[in-house]
Structure to design on (468 residues):
DNA sequence: CGCAAGTTTGACTGACTTCAACTTAAGTGG
DNA sequence: CCACTTAAGTTGAAGTCAGTCAAACTTGCG
């Protein structure tokens, strides 16, 4: 008999990582995997809040629509990230796969029961939520105070870091090929900019030799220090 | 003998609200009150993370300085709100009193011990952190996508709501006098705008009869529906 | 190869910023 | 109690960054 969740690529890094074998066995009974095609949504703002999940693979976004119709992405979800908001009745944001993605879904009620019985689960989630709050607040500073170029640099650096953590490969490896999980439109939605501005700013970074692009989604960071400087600049 | 924390104005609404008498007694031994003058800081970004606290009275801000020197306020703290980030080594933001304020401070280590022993405390903090994350994400949408007027309207509505919860008085009571806890400069720091723009936008709202001002910090909402409409507009 | 979606580029516009002068509010000491 | 002082807020003119609208160009898939 194979060990529970043995084939789970995020077994150690996900919320479940802290569980002992018995708890993990029960957890695995509650969870079921689901694949999402790029563009497919897991839930929509206003839905009944019925699920929690772990991201197994791919990248997803958390987004809201303004009444006037344009989108703002408020967070990106990478493998091992947790999805969901226990204890809430309704869902606050759309969750949509940016790339092909796979998630391990738990119904909310049994997940909450697991949390009550395994305090380390709750503790883990608290720590993650606190980090996520911190990430979100740092991004507030970008949207509130930084220029288009600084925002873009910040996003590229963030993606690089998260992709490095996720797959293999070092953070800010010079010249390494990154597959962007977002289209220009999606980048614009994260950055609070328009697609045209994003395109122009990418052009400028290319012209300056800071990055190189390869097709639509391929990107290489050629001058990490310069990119960081742009991110930190006003 | 008087009951523990009996005179605490936020006894029921704060994180401590869920504790039983025994736990509250211990908690009260750990906490000590501190008054802050307007403008005084409780901690600075980068400090060792040594404290957690409950806000007893007044309004405080969470803020960061960009490398280029201007401030972005990433959150406002009202009575009963929790301050601090358990489990982290350093502090992520400055915390500064906007008005005269009072807080109930706990050293971080014993606070974490209390959390370990009283799971409802951890659970409460998790729920609060999840809400705070949600608030922060909603604000992301404002900074990313909304015009100066919509942001200002959003801030006024938020302040009104929080002040109403905090003191007495109904939410969005027409014509009721609100004492703004922020100066124009501080509003600008929250909104990601300049002080001049804030001033001009307030002027426009006054001209439109949506609000009235009284001195520097007094404000009345005359047309709540109109204000909400402006907030929701692009 | 051809098409459609995605992206880039250009010209123009506008919202917010910047810089600067001026006004008001609120506290202080004579 | 009022002139004085100073910080806070308002107003105006000019500049700029990013948005809008529109057209051309890629890219990758069928």
């Amino acid at each position: 008999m194979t060990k529970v969740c043995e084939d789970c690529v995020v077994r150690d890094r996900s919320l479940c990582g802290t569980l002992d074998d018995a708890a993990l066995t029960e957890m695995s009974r509650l969870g079921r995997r689901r694949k999402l095609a790029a563009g497919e949504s897991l839930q929509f703002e206003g839905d009944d809040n019925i699920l929690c999940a772990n991201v197994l693979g791919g990248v997803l976004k958390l987004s809201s629509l303004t009444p006037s119709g344009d989108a703002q992405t408020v967070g990106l979800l990478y493998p091992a990230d947790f999805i969901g908001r226990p204890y809430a009745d309704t869902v606050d944001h759309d969750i949509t796969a940016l790339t092909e993605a796979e998630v391990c879904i738990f119904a909310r009620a049994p997940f909450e029961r697991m949390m009550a019985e395994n305090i380390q689960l709750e503790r883990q989630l608290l720590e993650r939520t606190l980090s996520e709050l911190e990430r979100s607040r740092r991004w507030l500073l970008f949207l509130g105070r930084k220029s288009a170029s600084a925002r873009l640099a910040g996003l590229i650096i963030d993606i690089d870091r998260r992709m490095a953590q996720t797959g293999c490969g070092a953070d800010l490896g010079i010249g390494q090929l990154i597959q962007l999980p977002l289209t220009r439109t999606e980048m614009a939605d994260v950055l609070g900019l328009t697609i045209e501005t994003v395109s122009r700013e990418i052009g400028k970074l290319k012209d300056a030799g800071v990055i190189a692009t390869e097709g639509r989604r391929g990107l290489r960071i050629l001058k990490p220090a310069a990119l960081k400087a742009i991110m930190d600049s006003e």
Remarks:
- Residues 5 and 28 of chain A are 7 Å apart (CA to CA).
- Residues 15-141 of chain A form a domain with the Jelly Rolls fold (CATH 2.60.120.10).
